[in-house]
Amino acid sequence: MLVVITGGTGYLGAHSVAAVRRAGHQVRLLVRDPARLATALQPLGVDPADVEHVSGDISDPGAVRRAVTGADALLHAAGSYSFDSRRHATMRAANVTGTAVVLGEARKAGLERIVHVSTFGALLPADSATISADAPVGHPRETYLRSKAEADSIARSHQADGAPVIITYPLATLGPYDPHVGDQVGRLRATLLGLMPMWPDGGFPIGDVRDVARLHAAVLTADSAPRRLLACGRYVSTREYRAALRAVTGRRLPSITLPAAGMLPVGRLATAAQRMVPVHIPAEYGAIYTCRIASGVQVDNTAAESLLGDPGIPLARTLTDTVRWLHRTGRLTARQAGRAAG
Question: Which of 109, 244, 279, 318 can bridge 208 by disulfide, Cβ–Cβ 3.0-4.6 Å?
């Protein structure tokens, strides 16, 4: 099977490329910058020479058309994920316009299976204590989450029209080999650097990037798969998250917990200031807002667990492997990584 993958030089995308290749499939990538292929894929054991690529942007119908021509399936993992206000302007183009173009061209090409990568955040705020993949699309009041909710609605409209579209919902994702050290891995690193002394209460569900990649390889070829799946993982409170980091590193990591509602104004100020400050500010409105609206919400990912045959990688191993990778790539010192440095 020839699988077209968008976002293949990103975090989820690169891991998914490796998983799809391990499953024995050919891969063709749609990439804006082919120079990034080696950096993203070689650490995961993928030789860039073993994958095809088409240069272009997901918002360009012509480039997408060239990429999907002659393919069997598509994994749309491209998008802009960040709570950094400096990137707000690019999110709608990447997450909404890009999704409309990619899914539309994939349908026109008659692909057998089309997988759209959403996020659990597109289903927030939740209308029940347990969120499932068939929950209604949410109406979040935050730029990134709102753009993903709109993209999710586009994918569901194709489903309603009878297209062979499957939607996956990764959780807050951690694990090794993040080519760009995005928001989640970056926040973990900032915690170990001592840059996050204050945390909101609440929490969010966490999963491992390697489980998401396995899920994508599975849904591309499974004889039958649910049309929507929440990825493996579980809800973790911010207190539990820091306790788990202390356990895997052996460090004290002093911090205080404040009500998320009270921290939101601080997040808004940080968001405004971020537009004028070149250095990234860890106190992001979007992260605080997510902790608040996801507080206590459990995830029903039984369909993904059934498809994969296991509940996924335990949180302690995910955190250990993430910290160890950050240390080995020079992003944390041995002292900062603690006993997770190995």
Answer: 318
Exposed / middle / buried, residue 5 (Cβ in 10 Å: 0-12, 13-18, 19+): buried
Report CA Rg, the chain: 19
**Token code pair at residue 302:** 């039984």
pLDDT at 282: 60
Report whether 306 contacts 209 (CB < 8 A).
Answer: no
| H helix and E strand count, the chain | 14, 14
Amino acid at 313: I
Q: How many C-beta neighbours within 10 Å does residue 10 have?
A: 23
Cut 0.85: pTM above it: yes
Return d(Cα 100, Cα 92) in angstroms, integer.
11
Mean pLDDT of 172-189: 95
3-state secondary structure of 120: helix
CB 91 within 8 A of CB 143: yes
| Encoded amino acid at 315, one letter | L
Task: Give alpha helix (H) positions in the chain.
Answer: 11-22, 37-41, 61-68, 88-91, 98-108, 143-160, 183-192, 209-221, 238-249, 260-274, 285-293, 302-308, 315-328, 334-337
CATH topology of domain 2-180+207-234+298-314: Rossmann fold (3.40.50)
HEC readout, 62-87: HHHHHHHCCCCEEEECCCCCCCCHHH
Asked if residues 192 and 25 have their Cβ atoms less than 8 Å apart, the reply is: no
Give the residue carrying structure tokens 């840059």.
Answer: 195
**224: pLDDT confidence band, cut at 50, 70 and 90?**
confident
Structure tokens at 315: 């949180």
What is the distance between the alpha carbons of residues 301 and 304, in angstroms, rounded to a whole number? Answer: 5
Contacts of 180 (CB under 8 A, 6+ apart): 10, 11
Helix or strand run (H / E) with residue 258:
strand 256-258
Identity of the residue numbered 324: R
